[in-house]
Design goal:
Elements (H helix, E strand, L loop, with lengths): L1 H12 L13 H21 L12 H25 L5 H33 L7 H27 L9 E3 L3 H18 L5 H18 L3 E3 L1 H6 L5 H16 L2 H50 L1
Antiparallel strand pairs: 1-2
Helix pairs in contact: 2-3, 2-4, 3-4, 3-6, 4-5, 4-6, 4-7, 5-7, 6-7, 6-10
């Protein structure tokens, strides 16, 4: 009898969870998503080779940055194809986040780490010091923030396209874009300047914090380019594209990603300051009103 009760009570402690097997997947979006991760892995492999001259006279650090840019295009394309074919699924979302962690989490952090360490060694600064530990801390913090950002997005994501007008926190591709655009700019425009390289760990730490923040960042395609707009809006977009075309592509990349990452942050900071000024003005007006009302009340 006791043996029967023991067996009957076991399912409460060892309860099996029914899991749904994945039977069908959408092939083309999944292949493009995997291509995103492969580009990220290629960027890591190229960054590990250091500042050697690689394809078409570009150093490997710059080529690694371009691989992450290709991963961004693959990331934009797979989601668009899945929504156009109405084949979005939980499997596709999880696969996309795993590949994004490689391409926009690990790859930019490793690229920043390798480039900064190479410059420190070239400058004769030995490893193991405070700067070396801080670079590692910045890289690890960036990867951790990217993982948290992607996991939070999976939990809070709404598959409805109309709901994707903005993001809570800086998207991981944009955060990676800030880092790799600066790397490409430094490698192709100012390879002998090390000040920008030394700023990369601080920038990586900053964009990592922005990824896990709740600052709203607009969805560029849905917010700016989708739907009906005035004719003057089209002229403004054409002028902006023409201005970008007149610049060197390294400078244009830095401006695009830096303005996107810093614009919403500055707007949020301005709202915080303006709100506090408004509160202080209201408190001062209230004190002034109390001061004028007090003599009248005493009379």
């Amino acid at each position: 009898m006791g043996k029967f009760k023991h067996k009957a009570g076991r399912p409460r402690l060892f309860r099996r969870v029914r899991k749904q097997r994945v039977k069908y997947i959408t092939v083309l979006p999944s292949l493009i998503t995997i291509l995103n991760g492969l580009f990220g892995f290629t960027a890591i492999a190229l960054a590990s080779k250091g500042a050697q001259v690689g394809v078409e006279r570009f150093p490997y650090f710059a080529v690694a940055g371009y691989m992450i840019l290709l991963a961004m295009f693959a990331d934009m394309l797979d989601g668009r194809l899945a929504r156009m074919s109405q084949s979005t699924s939980s499997f596709g979302g999880q696969l996309d986040s795993l590949c994004d962690l490689i391409s926009f989490g690990v790859a930019p952090a490793f690229l920043m780490l390798q480039l900064t360490e190479a410059k420190l060694v070239a400058a004769g600064i030995l490893s193991g010091g405070f700067l070396h530990r801080f670079i590692w801390l910045a890289a690890l913090a960036y990867i951790s923030c990217a993982a948290i950002r992607l996991a939070r997005f999976n939990v809070e994501n709404d598959e409805n396209e109309a709901a994707h007008m903005s993001f809570a926190g800086l998207p991981s591709p944009a955060a990676a874009g800030v880092i790799i655009s600066l790397v490409i700019f430094q490698q192709e425009q100012m390879p002998s300047v090390t000040l920008l390289v030394y700023a990369l760990p601080f920038i990586a730490l900053g964009v990592g914090i922005l990824m896990v923040s709740r600052i709203r960042y607009p969805h560029v395609l849905n917010f700016y380019l989708k739907g009906k707009q005035p004719f003057s809006y089209l002229i403004g977009v054409l002028l902006l594209l023409g201005l970008m075309a007149c610049m060197r592509h390294e400078t244009a990349l830095v401006l695009i990603f830096s303005v996107y990452a810093g614009g919403s942050f500055l707007k949020w900071l301005y709202c915080i300051v303006a709100h506090r000024k408004g509160q202080l003005a209201e408190e001062e007006n209230g004190l002034a009103a109390d001061a004028t009302d007090t003599p009248a009340m005493e009379k």
